[in-house]
Amino acid sequence: xxxxxxxxxxxxxxxxxxxxxxxxxxxxxxxxxxxxxxxxxxxxxxxxxxxxxxxxxxxxxxxxxxxxxxxxxxxxxxxxxxxxxxxxxxxxxxxxxx
Length: 98
Description:
The protein has five helices and no strands. It is mainly α. The mean pLDDT is 88.
């Protein structure tokens, strides 16, 4: 069984939670998930507004059907700043994602 997934021999209404680091790394590096994240970001840039705050609010509404609270907004703003610095320092890595 992969990542604690149930077998398909019987119905499972709720899948058990799996916290294995291997599963997380596999999913994060899977081309399907990278492409989904890229398209999600593209959608936010096109339709989310002009400011980072508007885009963050739009992203949250799309992802979790609500605006971010102030703590989430601050954490995401910090992440955005750190990721921006990282990609500016390593443009090749940024191009790989685009």
